[in-house]
Amino acid sequence: MRLHLHTLLAVSLQHPGPAARHVHPPRMHMPRPAPSGGITAKEAADAHLASLGYGPGGRTEAMRPKVGAPMPEGRRPDWFHVPAPGGANTRFADLKESLEKTAHEGKPRLATVCEEAQCPNIGECWNGGTATIMLLGDTCTRGCKFCAVKTDAAPEPPDEEEPWNTADAVTQWGVDYIVLTSVDRDDLPDGGAAHFAQTVGLLKLRKPSLRVECLVSDFQGDLKSVAMLAQSGLDVYAHNIETVERLQPFVRDKRASYKQSLSVLKEAKRLGELPGAQRVYTKSSIMLGLGETEAEILQTMHDLRQVGVDVLTLGQYLRPTDHHLAVVDYVTPERFEYYRQQGEAMGFRYVASGPMVRSSYKAGELFMAAMMDRDRSEAEIKEPSWNPALAI
Question: Is 119 annotated for ligand binding?
């Protein structure tokens, strides 16, 4: 399980500071049709990068990441440097204070993935009004080799009051868009799906206009659990495939698999397209820098698109401790830009691709909200208006 990729509560606060009040929604990146005349999307993207001065590249030799293996030579590239969070009178400080206040009032402190995973984007996201909070505790039943979350075969039972406490906190903060995530809970019969569904229901009951994204595990492939959550009223069903098919057994826990992740995403999308069902957007994420080849990355992107995934994020894998998989490659920003273009050509509604991109990320959530607004407006325009004269 990848902590910042699993069940969290990403909250977009409604109290922007002076510098944030004039921020416009992100530009809509519409999928581009595949080039005609025998030119492949890859060739077109390579040509575009070349026109900008970027040379073609990408790993062609397949490698396997290992714990304890040497890291890439030299210092970590400077594109990973981010400003330190915090400071007086910042939204980061306000959000941290509000989390502490909850604990002081005698309620369990909501656990943010941002803090637990030591996410490098915490300053940008919290100052921009986004935070991510875990449900179902902080202990995972799986042991993926890239994740630093605590693991145990028998974690503490879920807090039965957590759905209500979460809804209370979100209502008080004032939010437009939240992301619920969690650790894997294979010890629970439904993997925690009912806990999620209850939280979604309470949030929607208190604020029907709230957009809810759930970034969840694969529920061990249990499609009944997938259905329970997909039909709970959520807006975005997110599950991360994490890496390419060849590297799955070396990167993820043995209970996870490439085909299982694809089947979960496919089922969530199918359920959201049934007649009369609420529309469900699907989303996934891939880590780069673990020894995957360019061809494998493109194949994984293709496979995700084939099961209807709408939104894709690609980011750099960073080793959390010396006891986790070593980084094989630091993928350049130019290559991330190349994969973004590839994804748009494949038909993804939106692709966020960059070294510091994570699946729960402020910019992506802003785009998702804008995309849902536009889709809803278009649907209303297409619906025929009721004409009283025809009812006589």
Answer: yes
* pLDDT for the residue numbered 8: 35
> What is the Cα–Cα distance from 336 to 316, expressed in whole angstroms?
9
| Element of type H or E holding 286 | strand 281-288
Q: What is the mean pLDDT of the chain?
A: 78
Burial category of 293 from C-beta neighbours within 10 Å (exposed 0-12, middle 13-18, buried 19 and up): middle
pLDDT digits (tens, 9 = 90+) for 308-335: 999 999 999 988 888 899 999 999 999 9
pLDDT(10) > 50: no
| pTM: predicted TM-score of the whole model, two decimal places | 0.79
Q: Is 360 annotated as a binding residue?
A: yes
* Residue bearing tokens 């890291």: 71
Q: Is 144 a known ligand-binding residue?
A: yes
Q: Compute the average pLDDT of residues 22-43.
A: 45
Ranges assigned E (strand) in 47-198: 111-112, 130-131, 133-135, 139-140, 150-151, 177-182
What class does CATH assign to 84-379? alpha beta
Q: What is the mean pLDDT of residues 202-223?
A: 94
Per-position DSSP letters for 32-48, written without gaps between them: PPPP-TT--HHHHHHHH
Q: Kindly list the domain boundaries of the chain, sorted by start residue.
A: 84-379
Whole-number Å distance between alpha carbons of 390 and 386: 8
Is 214 annotated in some ligand binding site? no
| Rounded (5°) CA angle 249-121-280 | 65
Nearest to 26 by CA among 267, 362, 292: 362
Pairing mode, strands 111-112 and 133-135: antiparallel
Q: From the CB of residue 218, how many other CB atoms can be counted at a distance below 10 Å?
A: 25
User: Is residue 232 marked as binding?
Assistant: no
Instruction: From 136, 198, 207, select the one nearest 178 (Cα to Cα).
Output: 207
Burial zone of 18 (CB within 10 Å; 0-12 exposed, 13-18 middle, 19+ buried): exposed
Q: Give the residue with greater pLDDT, 92 vs 371.
A: 371
